[in-house]
Write a structure and sequence with these properties.
The N and C termini lie far apart (about 120 Å). The chain is an alpha+beta fold. It contains 7 helices and 5 strands; from the N terminus they run ααααααββββαβ. It folds into 2 domains: about 140 residues, no CATH class; about 50 residues, SH3 type barrels (Roll).
Length: about 240
């Protein structure tokens, strides 16, 4: 029965149970005459040892709490400043959203890495090494897709092509209206259908952007009114 009840206690509380018992006994020993002088000294020494053991962890927790608080205070001002910079950069809406998400994720990833490094620096070092090796392997295995993605991100922040442009990609039999500029491919509406062009080809090739066709104006003439073609002679009325 006692064993089951002890296991029902959360693990953190079980680990802190010796310290809690020592604190209670120290209060009893210091505030009352329940224990003798020898017992007082024994418990004082044991309490100092436990305090010395947990002191580095307490300091690390305080440092982590301070860093997390500072990171949270700076998060929203940094996001607002970044949004203003992106609005003035001329990037597409998709590029702005992508940049905000990536920078937010990177911000909290760095904060999390710094916090975890304070508790398990060796583990985080191994994790970072393994992640780097895995990333390099994936980049080599998906080199074409990686190039398309990088080119797509660059195109989101430049005015190389935009949706609605009439373009002709020199060196490729592709010409038509740009429907969408994605992260891996660009959709172009040609005369015979939609063509999906990898972004690395759009980024590497020379592109001719044709000016938009002049707008056609429609004039509605009420019944009974005739338009003159300007061929009347000056003497005619």
């Amino acid at each position: 029965m006692f064993s089951k009840g002890f296991k029902a206690i959360p693990l953190t509380v079980r680990r802190l149970l010796p310290t809690i018992v020592l604190l209670v006994l120290a209060v009893l020993a210091g505030a009352t005459d329940t224990f003798s002088t020898t017992v007082h000294e024994l418990f004082s020494k044991s309490l100092r040892e436990r305090a010395a053991e947990f002191m580095p962890s307490v300091i690390n927790i305080l440092i982590v709490a301070i860093l997390a608080n500072i990171a949270w205070l700076l998060y929203h001002p940094l996001c607002n400043a970044l949004a203003r910079v992106l609005n003035d950069s001329g990037a597409s809406d998709r590029g702005k959203q992508f940049a905000l998400k990536v920078i937010k994720l990177a911000y909290w990833a760095v904060i999390g890495f710094v916090i975890l490094s304070g508790f398990a620096s060796e583990l985080m070092g191994k994790f970072l090494l393994g992640f780097s090796v895995l990333g390099a392997a994936l980049t080599l295995a998906m080199q074409g897709a990686a190039n398309d993605f990088i080119s797509g991100v660059q195109m989101q922040f430049t005015k190389r092509v935009r949706s609605g442009d009439n373009v002709q990609i020199l060196g490729l039999d592709v010409a038509g209206k740009v429907v969408d500029v994605g992260y891996t491919s660009t959709l172009i509406e040609a005369a015979d259908g939609i063509i999906s062009v990898p972004n690395r080809l759009v980024w590497e090739r020379a592109i001719k952007v044709k000016p938009p066709a002049p707008a056609k104006h429609l004039i509605i003439v009420p019944p009974g009114i005739e338009l003159s073609d300007g061929s009347e002679k000056k003497g005619d009325k």
